[in-house]
Amino acid sequence: MPASPRLILLHKHGTSGRLRFLCLSSGVVAFQPLPALAALRDEDYSPTLQFHPTALVRQAEIHLGLPEGGIEPIAEFQAWVDTPAGDVPVLLAAFTGIDPPFAAAERIGSRFIAITESRQLSELERNLLRRAYQHALG
């Protein structure tokens, strides 16, 4: 049985296409960091069990104090991370507002970053962001 799924949250500006990721104090994987020995699986990895993001997205809205519909899942993105506790799915979701919810991020000690500001993250998280970035921009 896979470990509990994680979520990468992004905001894509509707006009400019500017893409920013929610960066928590622990990194960009919400809301529980991945273990130190975690490794990203190949992009073509396909487990028998798949996760639907709806419940996880709703939990993120509640955690951030956003109304229902403030975050929407991004279809067909799923990355898998191999950990000592088992495979962990990493799903992708986007904030629906015109601007990122800066106040909600600040309330939980987080901020929004561009992919170019991800140097402080682990190699695993940078690779997850790269996949999410490529998926979101096509």
SSE blueprint:
Elements: E1 6-12, E2 19-23, E3 39-40, H1 54-64, E4 71-83, E5 86-95, H2 102-107, E6 111-113, H3 123-137
Parallel strand pairs: 1-5
Antiparallel strand pairs: 1-2, 2-6, 3-4, 4-5
Write up what this structure looks like.
This protein has 138 residues and is an alpha+beta fold. It is 23% helix and 29% strand. The protein has 3 helices and 6 strands. A 6-stranded mixed β-sheet has the order 3-4-5-1-2-6. Strand 1 and strand 2 form a beta hairpin. It is globular and about 35 Å long. The chain starts with 5 loop residues before the first strand and ends with a helix. The mean pLDDT is 93.
Q: How many strand segments?
A: 6
The overall pLDDT average reads: 93
Strand content: 25-35%
Shape: globular
Major sheet characteristics: 6 strands, mixed
Task: Briefly say what this structure is.
This protein has 138 residues and is of the alpha+beta class. The chain contains 3 helices and 6 strands; from the N terminus they run E-E-E-H-E-E-H-E-H.
